[in-house]
Amino acid sequence: MTQKLYQAAIAAFDRANAEDPNKEMADGQEYPKELLYAHRLSEMLQRYAPGAHEAVKLAVRAQHIQRWKIPRSNYPMDRNGYLQWRTGLYRFHAETAGRLMQESGYDDDMVARVKAIVSKKGLKVNSETQMMEDVVDLVFLEDYIVGFAAQHPEYTEEKWIQIIRKTWQKMSSGAHEFALAGKIKLPEALQPLILKAIQK
Fold first, then answer.
1. Which residues contact 31 (CB under 8 A, 6 or more apart)?
2. 41: exposed, middle or buried (C-beta count within 10 Å: 0-12, 13-18, 19+)?
3. What is the pTM (predicted TM-score) of this model?
4. Contact status, residue 153 vs residue 199, Cβ threshold 8 Å
5. What's the Cα-to-Cα distance from 70 to each of 92, 99, 100, 113, 160, rounded to whole Å?
């Protein structure tokens, strides 16, 4: 790892995410939403795969970079609109990360490698893309599923089981083992439901 380039790119990613006008509380402190998310992903990667390649570490930090600039409301509020939004986000995140990496001094090969991971290319085939997906899903289960549940009080238990199972299916067997070994803190209120979903 070229430490100087890496630190410059990470700092650039963090500056970009610090511009997020949306705020979130954590441990009694307010943070820009996407900056907090990026740091949580990096911390999870360090726990889950401390020996991860530099490209994965960069991709994880940039996974949601400046997401607020591409709001869901820009697209039709149906299934096709949702898919268009997701595709647009992947492209936007990859291009933004790539540009900031180039400005930090990275060569085209490393930029392309990180952009492929951020774009979620080769999920289940590309081990680096899969590692990022694992981290995203582990962070969702540890830090975000409770908030998501609060936004959807109308969801039935069966609906929740479907959501949790869909998340679980995107994860690798290594991530399954990591989660089931107690390496992540499952929210107490949803623990029985999560365990029911993944053991069915």
1. 23, 24, 25
2. buried
3. 0.93
4. no
5. 8, 17, 18, 23, 27
Contact 86, 64 (CB under 8 A): no
Q: Which 8-state DSSP code applies to residue 143? A: I
Q: Which two tokens stand for residue 190?
A: 């949803």
Q: Is 25 helix (H, G, I), strand (E, B) or coil?
A: strand
Helix or strand holding residue 30 (H, E): strand 29-32
Tokens of 123: 């999920």
Question: pLDDT tens, 61-96?
Answer: 999 999 999 999 999 999 999 999 999 999 999 999
Q: What are the residue ranges of helices labelled H in the chain?
A: 3-18, 33-48, 54-61, 79-104, 108-118, 127-139, 145-151, 157-170, 173-180, 191-199
List pLDDT tens digits, range 164-187.
999 999 999 999 999 989 899 988
Sort 136 into a burial class: Cβ within 10 Å, 0-12 / 13-18 / 19+.
buried
Task: Say how far apart CA 142 and CA 123 lie, in whole Å.
Answer: 22
Q: How many CB atoms lie within 10 A of CB 25?
A: 9
Token pair of 192 as six digits:
């029985």
